[in-house]
Amino acid sequence: MHLTLQKKNIKSFFFKFYIVILQYKYKTMGATKTDHFTESQNELAVLSKALGHPARIAIMEYLLKVDACICGDIVNELPLSQPTVSQHLKELKNAGLIKGSIEGNSICYCINEPGLEKIKGFFEHISDHLAKKRSECC
């Protein structure tokens, strides 16, 4: 009887210990790297990543130049295949830099102004900082 009670106590101890370990892992290791940064920093990182490919920059430049929603094939403007261009458009749309709507058999894309405003605001912040610090810089 005494041995059985001891085994139950040991099992109970290990079970509680296991729960504590799981809780620790959940609290410390469960956090993603992005959880340690502000919402604004995370948003800017997503936007920057979307602009991190020359094809996406070319798409953005084209949409800015046209200054209208494009319902035709953007693929004609780039030296890339249609599936590749579609993937780049998807990345830009997911980041909030462009909008896409289905019209008939095609998807129309145009610039999403709020996405550009976020990028503009960040670069204005950097520019203001540089203007203030120019004389103090090494």
Structure explained in plain terms:
The protein is mainly alpha-helical. It has a domain at 53-132: Winged helix-like DNA-binding domain superfamily/Winged helix DNA-binding domain (Arc Repressor Mutant, subunit A, Orthogonal Bundle). The protein contains 5 helices and 2 strands. It has helices at 2-28, 39-50, 54-66, 82-95, 113-133; strands at residues 98-103, 106-111. Strands 1-2 form a two-stranded antiparallel ribbon. β1 (98-103) and β2 (106-111) form a beta hairpin. α2 crosses α5 (113-133). The chain is flat and about 75 Å long. Keywords: DNA-binding, Transcription, Transcription regulation. InterPro entries: ArsR-like_HTH (IPR011991), HTH_ArsR_DNA-bd_dom (IPR001845), HTH_MetalResp_TranReg (IPR051081), WH-like_DNA-bd_sf (IPR036388), WH_DNA-bd_sf (IPR036390). This is Transcriptional regulator, ArsR family. Residues 36-134 form the HTH arsR-type domain. It comes from Flavobacterium johnsoniae (strain ATCC 17061 / DSM 2064 / JCM 8514 / BCRC 14874 / CCUG 350202 / NBRC 14942 / NCIMB 11054 / UW101) (Cytophaga johnsonae).
Break the fold down into its secondary structure elements and pairings.
Blueprint: H1 2-28, H2 39-50, H3 54-66, H4 82-95, E1 98-103, E2 106-111, H5 113-133
Antiparallel strand pairs: 1-2
Keywords:
DNA binding; 138 residues; mainly alpha; 9% strand; Arc Repressor Mutant, subunit A; 63% helix
